[in-house]
Amino acid sequence: MAVENLAPRPVDARPVDDISAVIDRLAAATAQGMEAVNQLILSRSDSPVDMVPAVANHLIEAGGKRLRPMLTIAASSLFGGAHGNEVRFAAAVEFMHNATLLHDDVVDESDMRRGRPAARTIWGNQASVLVGDFLLGQAFLMMVESGDLDALGVLSRAAAVIAEGEVFQLAKAGDLATTPADYERIIKAKTATLFEAATEVGAMAGGSDAAARQALAAYGRELGMAFQLVDDVLDYGGARGSLGKNVGDDLREGKMTLPIILALETATEVEREVIAAALGNAGSGDDQLADVVAILAHYDTLGRTMALAERHAEAARLALADIPASPERDILFTVPEFCTSRAY
Amino acid sequence: MAVENLAPRPVDARPVDDISAVIDRLAAATAQGMEAVNQLILSRSDSPVDMVPAVANHLIEAGGKRLRPMLTIAASSLFGGAHGNEVRFAAAVEFMHNATLLHDDVVDESDMRRGRPAARTIWGNQASVLVGDFLLGQAFLMMVESGDLDALGVLSRAAAVIAEGEVFQLAKAGDLATTPADYERIIKAKTATLFEAATEVGAMAGGSDAAARQALAAYGRELGMAFQLVDDVLDYGGARGSLGKNVGDDLREGKMTLPIILALETATEVEREVIAAALGNAGSGDDQLADVVAILAHYDTLGRTMALAERHAEAARLALADIPASPERDILFTVPEFCTSRAY
After folding, report:
1. Total of domains in chain B
2. Which of A54, B135, B156, B317 has its CA 20 to 30 A from that of A174?
3. Is residue B2 part of a domain?
4. Whole-prediction pTM value?
5. How far is residue A34 from each of residues A72, A86, A194, A235, A326, measured CA to CA in Å?
6. Does residue B343 form part of some domain?
7. Contact check, Cβ <8 Å, B149/A144
8. Is there a contact between B144 and A152 if contact means CB atoms under 8 Å apart?
9. What is the tens place of the pLDDT at every residue in A232-264?
């Protein structure tokens, strides 16, 4: 592989059409597997207790990109030996993700999710907690049905690590002394772990050898890091700090994300006070948010966070270096770019 | 086995000492296994994220009887072939139970648990949800380490069924049309399933044959039914309706338990209104509770619920009929009686 293929391309050189086409190509390449995954998701979120599919489908139908299960299917196809388990694994990964979202909404007291009212605002916190538990149980059951203890180990370890990471994030909420290392530990646990598990169990389902399994795990982990860094930049309006809807939630919830942590490192006393006053203050208004974003812009912390995201995206691409070329490998190669481009 | 051994003994014939001795005998018989279980519980609830062991140990140290893991250990010892997995299974069962308690406190908005402030009142709902998720992940990880896919299937199915039962209970909260069959379905799912899993995986760890595994599953299931029926009677002050502390929570939360359901079946219009006014009303005072308990007493619904509990306790004992006699079998034989005696 030529080194120039691995270098991040200049932002302005990327036509937007190209970028949105990436996810379409991933969807096309995984269409057959994803049809089976979507059917499994539908049948396994059903229950004679009406409230279970009502809550689960409210979230599931809202969709999201189903990026994680597509990654599982794509990873399995690299090794040509898909035996059916990749469908179970992909559905289990998506169920774990949806369970996390339901619980996160309760934890963050969110009112919106995927552009719709959060389930908890319709059915209450109780239903969100319990249906999340149900989806987690179903995820493990699908993994058990695969008969693959190794893959079960990957996903159950991921479940514990994700929860641990979220607790750490909670413990650090509003803590002005949070370090970049703390932040890295949090996002690695709460986000990168599930991306890593998604691609790793995909590789396992495809029959990869140990080295390729490790490579796909690294790919997912680095992609997940980039994904979360970008998400945290988007919460301040993206790399250009364009304020609009769905911006400022992290600030109001007191989440210590990298743009804030980096700004606090060099901010003046007055700027620190502006940030501290807005942080974790559910009533922070647009003016306060604009003041904070101005500080982030002054220290270029959104840009510096994006630079780190680009480095992780690069590492994700590098992880695929020894995977034999194939159409699926080429698509996976472009996903990190799709991921970071969202913020520009 | 002589039939008279299986007949429920008259209440007044049971000296209290005898009854509390049951749990001591169970504890003594399982002491060696439980020491390993307790160590495993301690090490697996640890984490570099301080809040995780803080929340977990707050609940775990409060103790409870650890009835479920003791049942797993006792069940495994019936078959003489304990291979170490019974310790993992028992710890996993207790973790699942504690995860459920942490989530239930959030769902029920409870302030107290095991005589201490509920974790959510100290660390917040968020930590309770997330540490519950962590314990669930650790439970599955311990099961994976056992290498026993069959037992993993039992526990992951149980996790989904328990959550489903709790959602059904939530959907039925305050619903005056709830039937005894609805109630049976709820408690079978939310409580009996974990008791059943506890004894079933215990039997599996001990190396039981299929018939004995089924017998132990039935024992756990019936014991669990009796346990929950008794709990629901205790929430109205026990079989004699003695009002005191920790009484009336179910009423205030709108939980449709059998004593209420049976009373509503035959209550007059005025009595229905008294019950309906108190049900799900967090501000229901002692007077309202006393009025409701008087209605339950009038229709003897606490007594009738206890009669059903006794029948399930009897069924639990019967399930052990074909298990070869042993000291452990004899102790398990007395546990259902311990369970029902709590309410007298």
Report:
1. 1
2. B135
3. no
4. 0.91
5. 10, 10, 18, 29, 19
6. no
7. yes
8. yes
9. 999 999 888 787 767 899 999 999 999 999 999
